[in-house]
Every structure is written in structure tokens, then in C-alpha cells.
What does this fold into?
Amino acid sequence: MSPRGRDTAGGASGAKRAGVIPAYQAARWIHGVVERARLQIDTIVVVDDGSTDATGDLARAAGARLLRHERNLGKGWALGTAFRELLGEGYDELVTLDADGQHLPEQIPRLVHARNATTADLVVGTRDHLFSGMSPVRRASNRLSTRAISILAGARQSDIQSGFRLYTRRLLEGTGLPRGRFEAESAIIVKGVRRGFRVVGTPVELGYTDGRHSSHYRPVRDSLRIAMAVFGARLEGM
It folds into this structure.
């Protein structure tokens, strides 16, 4: 298999591409997610973020390269660990998806196609067309946070919170690697837009719409983290 990964969208970008899956206590899903992701991209890196179950062993058995944190540091730090290693190896595009099966690996070509068609620096797999299938609280949270963060970024975005993304080397070198927990993904959009990078969304389908049963998101604490991070990113990006 080519180290550049399959361009499943039929484009010809020639980018050296890898997939990144941050994972915590994901033994129930990780093997299947990795197997399906490897049908789309040759190199899949799983960051086991301090799991105490068999997440790491199952990811490796499915063919992923495994990186591991000895304790749980959070999604942003997990992404940063993988990004640092892969950028150092010359990868140009990094596709991120969650470990719990909500993000369908078969939808990766949509991200790749959007990147090839628009030359965007960051492509977000958007879910706003599916918000009606979420619980009222989750739906309201997503819509309000997207609207508020779009204002801070200075550009309309349709789904800030989605972690199904394609990052380019150019964006990551211009904004810095993610860190922290769930707030990292919101902050990088604000910083990216404020610094002139092009961020686009493309609609994707999901394995299931409301991910509360598998989420490690803590509503009060993580919402406060996101608010603080995006205000900080707004100031950094000025």
C-alpha cells in the first residue's frame, strides 16, 4: 500500500494523509472503527488516552499504530500527540474521527473531496442537518455554541463542535497544535479563522446522531473550558 493513503474521493491532491483517532475507554468500538478507517486511509494512529480497558490492544490488533498516554489528559492533548509525530514524519493532511463509531469512516471521502475542491486549510464534517435527531438539550447546546463561537471567530460556521475533520499541515503550523480537552477543537477554529486560514464545512452522515451514551463530555466543566479557550483563541488570533 502507498504511504500516501488512498484518495478515496477520486481527487489527485497527492497529499500524504493519515487518520487520527483519540480514544478513551473505547474497547467496545475501537477495533471495528480502525478496520473500517484503514479501508479509507492506510495509516491510522490511535492515541489511547489513559484507558484502563483493552482499547489499546484492540486498536493495535486492528492494524493501527498505537500511541499511549499513561493517564487521561484529554482529547486536545491526544490529538496534539498524534499530530506532532505525524507532522514530523512528513504527513500533509490529518483526518480525525472519534473512537465510538459515531463518525463513519466511509464518510472520509467527503472530507477529502471538500479539501480538493476548495483548497481549504480545515474541513469540518458538519452535522447541523441532523440536529433534529438530537435531544433538545444537546441540539440547543450545539446551535448556541456554534453561533457564539462563529461570532468570536468572525466567520459563520455551521457546526463548530464536530470532531470529524481534515486538518492541513499549513493550518497546524500556523495555529499551533491542539491541547487541553474538548475545548481544543473550538479554539483551533477561532484561531484559524482569525489568522486568515480557510475553514469550510461539508455535510456528513453519522453512525448515530445523539452521542450522549458514549461521550465523556462533562456539560458544566467542559462548557466553561470551551468558553475560556475560545476567548483566549480570539485574543491570540487578533
In short: Strands lie at 17-23, 43-49, 65-69, 93-96, 122-126, 165-168, 199-203. The first helix runs from residue 30 to 37. The helical segments are 30-37, 55-61, 75-88, 108-118, 136-153, 169-175, 183-194, 219-236. The chain has one domain: 17-236.
